[in-house]
Amino acid sequence: MADFADIDKLLSELRHGQSCLLLNDNSAGGVTGFVMTAAEHCQADHIAFMARQARGLVCLALTPQRCEELELPLMVEGDDSLSPFTLSIEAATGIDTGISAADRARTVQVAVDALSQPSDLVQPGHIFPIAAAAGGVLTRTAPAEAAVDLTTLAGLTPAAVFTEVLDGEGAVASGDYLAEFAERHDVVVGRVSDLVTYRLANQKTVSTVRSGVLQSRYGQFKVAAYQDTIHQRVHLALTVGDIRADHPTLVRVHVTAVFRDLIGTTIEGHASWSFDASLRAIAEADAGVLVLLSKPETAEDLISGIDRLLGAPEAELSGSADAYNQIGMGAQILRDLGVGQIKLMGAPLKYNALAGFGLEVVEFVAPPESEGL
Question: For the chain, which domains are there?
């Protein structure tokens, strides 16, 4: 693929009403792409291009604040949904069936107009809003967050229309197809990982508030407490050994779960690292980091956990984990600690845009067979 555009070039394109192709690389070596344009410049031809050429679902990335202003509730409550879609929308006036490119562009313009009220939209409709996570790509490295970040940096209304690029068979397009797509349609190409790097150079959403040494049942650890600026939560990092960017570090990024960590429940075929097993493995490593992210479990989380343990079909469970997207908080902490190469204690998922944080997964480490989810 031709040279990638830097962030300033992408911002210039968006300010002039052009569409861009953003590539999102992952830790497995793959890449996906999405086409985006600033919502305030969105016209019928942008929608037509996305629907006919990119072929994905046309979505509207909005800030959480804008979703609240328009009274757009999430389709699945909680902040763990893989794609936090709100109810779909349609402009209340000025459209025909709502599905045409012109009608959908009209709906977008109504949604991002600062003077619009909830009554100016109806549900359901043919535009699918997504509430981008606060903190943008420094929290979740997904298309909605990247799109809102870029429009914000461009000085535009923080909202964007985007769609994933699908190939001729209807599957999510990968590297070669994306390169040909960009050349055929003469669109500027950028990378989400470069956006992460750009934002990190100017802003972080975590800062160290305490540090020291503590004694645990598995020995001595250095401890650092980080507070995030998004939810004001405090996250912990426990480290052992000499952490070097050019040397693989054993890493576990952990979110406590009551059933797994406190009760010790297991589900056959779903092995996972418990906190106790993670702490023990890190203590025995030459160089290791255990990041404990603070995320209180909601009532829905606990009910979902019970349902899983009782064997409820996956299709009936609410919510969907997005560990491979929502990596920003842990990644920022690892970067601050000097980690570069990672031996990751966890499932071999595809973690997006890690390169933007200066991180590389070189190995996945499976949990002991006695440990369960």
Answer: 7-200 (3.90.870.10), 206-365 (3.40.50.10990)
